[in-house]
Amino acid sequence: MKEVVDFLKIAERLECEYRLTRMSDDTQQSVASHSWNMAMMAIALQPYFSASFDMTRVLKLCILHDLPEAVAHDIPLHQQNEVVRQEKHKQEAIAVSKIINMLGNEDIKCCFNEYELRESAESKLVKALDILDTTVQHLCAKDLSYVGTYNDNFYWKLFFSEEFAAKFDFEPVLRNVFDEIKKRVSERLKKELGIDASVFIEVKNEKL
After folding, report:
1. For the segment 26-64, what is each residue's pLDDT rounded down to a tens digit?
2. Which residues, in sequence order, are CB contacts of 19 under 8 Å at separation 6+?
3. Fewer CB within 10 Å: N-end or C-end of the chain?
């Protein structure tokens, strides 16, 4: 039981590891809260999925997918480049080995590998929920002004891009939910900050 207790001490750190996104009370979102939100989305959306998913697996992946960050920590997307991503991947692999060796639970190892490879329907769904939760926080955050303070509106340009929206197209209900969130966030930007969301949409010039 010593190993289990040691594992629980590591898992608790996710409650103390904070993401860039902010909550409705203006505090930063913890990684644990993010994982919980994903699980709640999976439960809420299950009746509307067009495909059949192993929901036990989905919920397990939601809870476990960011567990390595309890050791390796979270790095905001705007701070990542190829070198940073490689180091992040390396540190997370070390964290995964530490956790697996501690518990001796092969299923947890399989979950980490499954999410990393993104080949199963469940892992693809969980990755989409991972991204969708960020958009939910754009809707719920008490003050949206913080989102535009990074790298010349990096996050708004990403949020309003077609490339970003296309990540939800494989499951219609995800795209429908995202489109509704985007509509409401656009309304908030206009009402609260006087910003027309169209300024963040990059128009590609194509030769006729």
Report:
1. 999 999 999 999 999 999 999 999 999 999 999 999 999
2. 28, 29, 30, 31, 34, 74, 76
3. C
